[in-house]
Amino acid sequence: MIKRSIGIKIFIVAVIVMTMIMLPSISGEESNNKDAFPQTLQMNGYMDQSAPTWDLMKDNTEVRGIYMTGHTVSNKKRFDELVKLIDDTELNAVVIDVKSDEGMVLYQTELKDVQFSGANNNIIIKDIDSVLKHLNEKDIYTIARIVTFKDNKAASKFPNLAVKTANGTIWRDRNGQAWLNPYNKEAWNYVLDIAEEAAIKGFDEIQFDYVRFPTDGNLKAIDYGSLKSKSKAQAIGDFLRYSRDRLSDMGVVTSADVFGLVTTAEGDMNIGQQLEQLADSVDVICPMVYPSHYGKGSYGVAEPDFEPYKIVNYSMKKAKERLDNNENSTAKLRPWLQDFSAAYLPRYKKYGPAEIRAQIKATNDAGVKEWILWNASNRYTKGGLIKN
């Protein structure tokens, strides 16, 4: 596994700067003439230098991960316990909250707009640099989870970035939360500035969650305004392509969390998540295929929560088939798997080692090698993992 510390990234930037200094200068007129500066640079007639591709700098680790909240990371005892779990088992990666469901950035940021919005008023992770240094030394792949368009802080502070109603007021979902407008490129840039800062700090991957349109509240009251010049699926796809382009220049992997039904639904379910649109937009697609989240009878399974193998395997096989048959696809699959018991259901199955293992096997049997376990309180089932 190749790890990129901040020092390595600084070295890369230094090499680029030195290379630019060494290149022969060209006049402004020549710079507008594509023939005056060919794609392949010839130096002294003996060396050809093609433009570098930053995709080569991306870490292509086959991820087997878990998720940590900011509070878990800041609690040394809990953090050390989970790092030991990774050390002792097949796990090799961790997803860490960077921008929360409320829009809070959980460590000290230098971004003025984030500070102005109040999104940095409660710093949960006091020393993210030390955290990343420790994980890097242990060769643990790090993923920054960034909640994207659900952002009460920024949308409330910057109304020009927010989803609005027809009368121009800020629209809010059923929980009173404001959202950034997925059609608004200024909103994209607010999120991407946070993502780039996380990349500079040393995260291997940026993972966009809530990268969709709102699903609850009075949706009929929403007016996306004159910015709505394309479909929702195109807007989400364009945002992710734009994000990948910016982050790829930093050698960072880009991923997107999507609803589990995206694996089999043909349309975008009116939220902007459509598999073929996502296929060439990111490096990794992460469907949340939690069996408990499927309705009775889904895929012919009477009670999905009781049949974790069938639900996960069917979902991932269908998604893989669609991506394999899409010549434009650049993305690989990495599902979120259920490591919790859905006690909120009228009837539910208590999930333990057998259910965790069944989902991992279902993923592998579908031809997918990567996965991440989700447990909101970060209590993971060690018995469901293979020991090192």
What are the SSEs and their pairings?
Blueprint: H1 6-22, H2 28-31, E1 41-43, E2 47-49, E3 64-68, H3 70-74, H4 76-88, E4 93-99, H5 112-117, H6 128-137, E5 141-147, H7 152-157, E6 164-165, H8 185-201, E7 205-209, E8 222-223, H9 232-248, E9 253-259, H10 275-279, E10 284-288, H11 308-324, E11 332-333, E12 336-338, H12 353-365, E13 371-374
Parallel strand pairs: 3-4, 3-13, 4-5, 5-7, 7-9, 9-10, 10-11, 12-13
Antiparallel strand pairs: 1-2, 6-8
Helix pairs in contact: 8-9, 11-12
What would a concise description of this structure say?
This protein is α/β, with parallel strands linked by helices and 388 residues long.
Description:
This protein is α/β, with parallel strands linked by helices. It has two domains: 1-52, no CATH class; 64-384, Glycosidases (TIM Barrel). Helices cover 34% and strands 14% of the residues. The chain has twelve helices and 13 strands. It has helices at 6-22, 28-31, 70-74, 76-88, 112-117, 128-137, 152-157, 185-201, 232-248, 275-279, 308-324, 353-365, and strands spanning 41-43, 47-49, 64-68, 93-99, 141-147, 164-165, 205-209, 222-223, 253-259, 284-288, 332-333, 336-338, 371-374. A nine-stranded parallel β-sheet has the order 11-10-9-7-5-4-3-13-12. Strand 10 (284-288), helix 11 and strand 11 form a beta-alpha-beta unit. Helix 8 (185-201) runs parallel beside helix 9 (232-248) and helix 11 (308-324) packs parallel to helix 12 (353-365). It is globular and about 55 Å long.
